[in-house]
Amino acid sequence: MTGGWPQEVARIRARISGRVQGVGFRPAIYRHAVSCGLRGFVRNDPAGVTLEVEGSRDDLNLFFSTLEQRLPRQAVVTEVTREELPPQGSTRFEVVVSEAAGPVTVQLPPDLATCEACLAELRSPDNRRYRYPFTNCTDCGPRFTIIRELPYDRANTSMNRFRLCAACAREYQDPADRRFHAEPNACPVCGPRLRLLEKGGECLAEGEAALQEAQALLRQGQIVAVKGLGGYHLACDAFAAEAVGRLRQRKQRPHKTLAVMLRDLTTVLRYFQPCPEELQELLSPARPIVVLDGVLSPAVSPDTRDTGVFLPYTPLHHLLLEEFEALVMTSGNRLEEPIAQDEPQALRLLEQGIAEAVLAHDRPVLHRCDDSVLRVVEGRRCFLRRSRGFVPGPLRVAADSPVILATGSDLKNTFCLVIRGQAYVSQHIGDLAEHSTYSFFESEVDRWLELFRVTPAVVAHDLHPGYLSSRYASRLDGIPAVAVQHHHAHVAGVLAEQGLEGPVLGIALDGTGYGEDGTVWGGEFLLADRCSFQRLAHFGRYPLPGGEKAIAEPWRMAAAVCLLEGIEWDGPPERSEMVARVLAAGLNCPPSSSAGRLFDAAAALLGLCDEAGYEAQGAIRLEAVVDPTVRRRYSYRVRDDDEAGARKAGGGRPGEGLKHSPDSAPKGRARLFVLDFGPAFAELLADKRRGLPVGEMAAVFHNTVAAGCAEVAARLGEEQGVDQVVLSGGVFQNRCLLSHLTAELRERGLKVYTNTVVPANDGGLSLGQAVVALARWKAGELSCV
Ligand code: ZN
Ligand code: ZN
Ligand code: FE
After folding, report:
1. Are 213 and 62 in contact (CB under 8 A)?
2. Ligand nearest to the CA of 522
3. 192 near 162, Cβ under 8 Å?
4. How far is CA 502 from CA 265, 664, 772, in A?
5. Is the dihedral of CA 49, 52, 55, 58 positive or negative?
6. Measured on CA atoms in the order 12, 13, 16, 21, is the torsion positive or negative?
7. Ligand 1 center to residue 365 CA distance, Å?
8. Which residue, 375, 374, 386, 21, is CA-closest to 230?
9. CA of 122, nearest ligand number
10. What stretch of H or E contains 309?
11. Which ligand has its closest atom nearest to the C-alpha of 314?
12. DSSP H or E segment with residue 64
């Protein structure tokens, strides 16, 4: 201590990194420092937050020991470094606003659901924000969806068009206020306004009147397009079966389950029995759609025994739902188009006759973002879609890295950027075959590169040369490109999520992925690390009669399985004859080891799904009828691959194998194992002829697939000396299969890892691709700047 300071006065500088901007961090530090009687300052910088506090040792100790409890709930602290400085005689504590340009490493927050404090204001008649639908604060409100550039400052958001009124400006500038630097801060005087639009863009009502008109339309059973955080929803009263039916018909979505927004927790508990983890997800500031057991109405979930439920996450939702227990809130789009983002796109929904009115507002959406969808399986989070509320939250995949862009899959596309070892997976983009979705993909990639101020040094893409996402990658001139096999990417994603290096045994089950031998893979057992893989076994192959058509029409798979297994077909004979002709001609019958198609075949044989109205409908209906009390299973075979030729070594470069993990070199087996479910189909049809309940046969089928996979995994694990098993691929969205297989593998002493950060489906593929590219770069296989 220096002489001029009588008692134990000290000064400490702390640097804090993580998600510490845009979440009310500085005001929280300010209030805490003042309450501890400390002087000094706090400021944002490109790497996070820096603060210096000065005071007595006791006060400093109190400050740091209680700091964690005083941080805003949205803050995520990844690192705190502290150093002692000589005291400087500061006389007060200040918030220094200085956000220098520089490398952006600070975490950008996702959109946050309305907090309790704002909700209370929304509901108090004497508050100036009473019933104001755009109320927000440093704890809540739009974030990612309104950001144009970093740093996250009002001028760089779509709020820049609204000039703060005097009252709002006071809050914004007062470090003690909970709206200090709440960038989207707004009130009825200065902020965004609601408008109700009809066809042609005519404004029917504004403000509160627009809200009440919209509620009146919904009460009459009409469909209203409602602007949310990341785009438009199509809303209707969830209990008005006729309205729900009309919405389905207009969206050309006859069967797929629709998400419902319930008024509040009490209403959720009236209809559902969520477990503690599900409750936590429902109430989290990300407010995802959580798939819960139970049916609110058959019109909402005709195919399943569950419902996608979520709670209001903007003040506008809270106000709208005052009049309803539940609203269907489905993405405001047509077929595979991206969701409507602005008013012209919403008005097109009126012209197409999909909605009757548009409840709009004038705060632009800069990044389209669909709702996230997840379910809880055995206490763990399983994403079906990771988007609003989670994006652009990063995942650390390495200490450092070059900038890597991974372009993902063509279905359920997301892309991924790795910057300094942090992987940022984009929001859900969708099916790139749809022209407008592909345009969204291209423009969103550009925006992310601008937002993070980076240019990719490496681009990773799927091995499929025909994928639009692969072709996009190959057009990026001068950037080394890494082609990653589809199922390897699925497995590598889990390695990154779990911090594993491998080698592990990866079981990747999905509908379709391009294999190294040019055939369609989809039921794969891989020995994999982050860099490369080797295919050890696969599901028995069946030809897909008619190629793509076999996916849309599961009866084709069923007929093909019967013909090839010599099982008597009990469907219309002309179908079997047709498939027989197609198979005999060998035209457009690509052989496939797809696991998804096996579930299709079983669903079709059980009369559950002849033609799929949406992706995986057969599998979803098959799972929905499962009788969970049934333990029995059918037979399967594990045999050597009868195709000519030995195993192929992997990693996209034949012959190399897992060269980075020499200890796990494949042990003497010349051929791949094949897991063959032919016998199961014969027994299933015999059961059907005996008239057994569908729920029993569906259960036995699931048990069989789980048992077969577990047996092969155990054999391969022993052979390769590996006890870590990774499960990934879209088929693992099947909860019944996932829990059965997990239990079977654990019984055999194997450790099981699954996706919890990104979806197991192709929405998680970009992360896996990025991780493989990073590993190959680290191994010196790529040269880049
Ligand atoms: Zn708030
Ligand atoms: Zn204002
Ligand atoms: Fe896949």
Report:
1. no
2. 3
3. yes
4. 42, 10, 12
5. positive
6. positive
7. 19
8. 386
9. 1
10. strand 306-310
11. 1
12. helix 57-70
Token reading at 517: 């031998």
- So what's the pLDDT on residue 73? 82
Instruction: Kindly give the distance from the C-alpha atom of residue 130 to the centroid of ligand 2, in angstroms, as a whole number.
Output: 13
For the CA of 162, the nearest ligand:
2
What are 212's two structure tokens?
A: 């009440």
Count of Cβ atoms closer than 10 Å to residue 25 Cβ? 25
Report pLDDT for 151.
76
The token pair that represents 588 in the structure block: 């457009």
**CB atoms inside a 10 Å sphere around CB 277:** 15
Q: What residues in the chain have per-residue pLDDT under 50?
A: 1-3, 644-666, 784-785
Contact yes or no for 194/133 (Cβ under 8 A): yes
For the chain, what is the largest distance between any 2 Cα atoms, rounded to a whole number of angstroms? 100
In this structure, which ligand is nearest to the CA of 129?
2
Helix 694-720 and helix 617-624, axial crossing angle in degrees, nearest 10: 110
Residue that the structure tokens 């942090």 belong to? 422
- Write phi, then psi, for 288 (nearest 5 degrees): -75, 165
Give burial (CB, 10 Å; 0-12/13-18/19+) of 192.
buried
The DSSP call for residue 562 is H
- In 504-564, the DSSP E strands lie at 504-514, 520-528, 533-539, 542-543
- Tell me how far apart the alpha carbons of residues 609 and 407 are, in angstroms, rounded to a whole number: 33
Quick one: which H or E segment has residue 267? Answer: helix 265-271
Ligand 1 centroid–CA 136 distance in Å is: 4
What is the number of the ligand closest to the CA of 128?
A: 2
Give 3-state DSSP helix, strand, coil % of the chain, rounded to 5. Answer: 35, 20, 45
Sheet-wide strand order for 76-85: 76-85, 9-19, 48-56, 39-45, 93-96
Quick one: which of 452, 447, 388, 451 has its CA closest to 419?
452
DSSP string, 590-623: -EE--HHHHHHHHHHHTTS-SS-SSTTHHHHHHH
Please list the residues that pair with 430 across neighbouring strands: 413
Ion ligand 1: residue ranges with CB closer than 5 A: 115, 118, 137, 139-140
333, 375, 324: which is closest to 352 by C-alpha?
Answer: 333
pLDDT at 663: 36
Helices (H), 464-524: 468-474, 486-498
Q: Residue 745: what residue type?
A: L
Q: What's this model's pTM, rounded to 2 decimal places?
A: 0.91
Instruction: Kindly give the distance from the C-alpha atom of residue 256 to the centroid of ligand 2, in angstroms, as a whole number.
Output: 42
Instruction: Calculate how far, in angstroms, residue 41's C-alpha sits from the geometric centre of ligand 1.
Output: 25
Residue 474 in tokens = 């190959």
Give the number of whichever ligand sits closest to the CA of residue 596: 3
**What pLDDT was estimated at residue 670?**
62
Q: Which residues are within 8 A (CB) of 605 and not within 5 positions of it... i.e. 6 or more apart?
A: 558, 561, 562, 681, 684, 685, 688
Rounded to the nearest angstrom, the gap between the alpha carbon of residue 393 and the centroid of all alpha carbons in its chain is 11
Cα–Cα distance measured from residue 499 to residue 607, given in angstroms and rounded to the nearest whole number: 43
- Count, residues in the chain: 785
Measured in angstroms, how far is the CA atom of residue 785 from the centroid of ligand 1? 44
Nearest to 82 by CA among 9, 15, 10: 15
**Can you tell me whether residue 200 is helix, strand or coil?**
helix
Name which of 738, 717, 86 is nearest 379 in CA terms: 738
Query: Can you give the pLDDT at residue 668?
Result: 55
Which of 383, 84, 358 has its CA nearest to residue 234? 358
Where in 218-275 does DSSP place strands (E)?
224-227, 232-237, 259-262
Mutual angle of helices 765-778 and 486-498, in 10-degree steps: 80
pLDDT value for 105: 58
